[in-house]
Design brief:
- By secondary structure, the chain is an alpha/beta fold.
- The chain has 2 domains: 169 residues, Rossmann fold (3-Layer(aba) Sandwich); 199 residues, Dehydroquinate synthase-like, alpha domain (Up-down Bundle).
- Helix content is 52%, strand content 10%.
- The chain has 16 helices and 8 strands.
- Strands 1-8-5-4-2-3 form a 6-stranded parallel β-sheet, with helices on both faces. A two-stranded antiparallel sheet has the order 6-7.
- β6 and β7 form a beta hairpin.
- α4 packs across α5, α7 packs antiparallel against α8 and α7 packs parallel to α9.
- The chain is globular and about 60 Å long.
- It starts with 12 loop residues before the first strand and ends with a helix.
Length: 385
């Protein structure tokens, strides 16, 4: 018997080269004149902020800039952005950058309309009120945060990356402009691309997967398999960067609905405890976790292999699934992702606590297709070390 499915989608998605020029028009549709732009120093240095400020200025919209968001955004930085935006009387938020600025922008918008404190929401208290309107403009093709209902912020008191999850957090407008992604260096294109691939695969094999999210996830996997390598090889390859931008957004919608799994449950504590970039952590862990999960989703892992271009027609279900793991490992190596956690400053001494932290990622653990014990998580960490 078919289940009943629900699919949450962004209110308004605008895609295309030059789409960023519509930002002022979209702000005006909300009837707002004071906006807070949440971004980071790298975006400013790359000249991408000006592509947003110019149309806003031409339309007479006052933009206040908060550019202090770091990789793996911290709770105290989010609070600084909130206080700044509140002081300036901002009525709408623009999140410009990779997943970190957009996630931070979501949290800031929530604090503007909810009583807080932030720590409560990071520890499970549900949001009651809709946040300020948010326009999300990604500059990387990986996190999909522009279309998801999640905001991930580091709880510094616990050295723990925590997520706020609510359909209220889905940005009102997502502007996906591949021209903003051309300046990504190869290492960032690789890490964010592998992040998008992890989103797609985990959504596809999730216990909460459904036909609609499956279709989005599978197409994202196909696009990443075809276009990640050329996107990393040459940022001026507009076709590759555009297709990766599409893949990232598709994967974002897929996992926003179906959830992620053990890879993310393990990757987030690595970001909180060792400050490992999220996409890199995902990429290193993905093959090991796929091998662990294989017996729970044999047919689906075979479909992943096929989507990546592997010839699996004459293989058994087990061998087809293993071919998916091999293809992911090869793709990760080809785009220059480190092979081991020890290469990104993860220490063996902290892994027991990190495994305990991973077990506390209840939402991700609950979506994983195979039930996992803490000692198995620690073993997977040590294998990846």
């Amino acid at each position: 018997m078919l289940r009943t499915y629900a699919l949450s989608l962004p209110s308004n998605l605008i895609f295309g080269v030059g789409a960023v020029e519509t930002v002022a028009e979209k702000v005006k549709e909300f009837g707002k004149s004071k906006v807070l732009v949440v971004t980071d120093k790298g975006i400013v240095g790359a000249g991408l902020l000006e592509k947003v400020l110019t149309p806003l200025e031409q339309a007479g919209i006052k933009a206040h800039i908060f550019d202090q968001i770091e990789s793996n955004p911290r709770d105290h930085t989010v609070l600084k952005a909130f206080e700044f935006g509140k002081k300036k009387g901002c009525e709408l938020i623009i999140g410009l950058g990779g997943g970190s600025p957009i996630d931070a922008a979501k949290a800031v918008g929530a604090l503007m309309t909810n009583p807080g404190p932030l720590q409560d929401y990071l520890r499970g208290t549900p949001l009651k009120n809709p946040p300020l309107p948010l326009i999300a403009i990604p500059t990387t093709s990986g996190t999909g945060s522009e279309v998801t209902q999640f905001s991930v912020v580091t709880d510094t008191e616990r050295s723990f990356k925590a997520g706020i999850g609510s359909p209220l957090l889905i940005p009102k407008v997502a502007i996906v402009d591949p021209s903003l992604m051309e300046s990504m260096p190869p290492s960032l294109a690789a890490a964010t691309g592998m992040d998008a691939l992890t989103h797609a695969i985990e959504a596809f094999v999730s216990v909460n997967s459904q036909p609609f999210s499956d279709a989005l996830a599978l197409h994202a996997i196909r696009l990443i398999g075809a276009f990640l390598r050329p996107s990393v090889a040459n940022g001026a390859n507009q076709e590759a960067r555009s297709q990766m931008a599409i893949a990232s957004t598709l994967a974002g919608v897929a996992f926003s609905n179906a959830g992620v799994g053990l890879v993310h449950a393990m990757a987030h504590p690595l970001g909180g405890r060792f400050d490992v970039p999220h996409g890199v952590a995902n990429a290193i862990l993905l093959p090991s976790v796929m091998r662990f999960n294989l017996i729970a989703r044999l047919e689906k892992f075979g479909q992943v292999a096929q989507a990546l271009g592997e010839k699996v027609e004459k293989l058994s279900a087990v061998d087809a699934g293993k071919r998916a793991v091999e293809a992911i490992s090869q793709l990760s190596a080809d785009v220059g992702i480190p092979a081991r956690l020890s290469e990104v400053n993860v220490k063996a001494e902290g892994l027991a606590q990190t495994a305990a932290d991973a077990m506390n990622m209840k939402r991700a653990m609950g979506s994983n297709p195979r039930v996992v014990k803490q000692e198995e998580v620690e073993k997977l960490y040590r294998e990846a070390l």
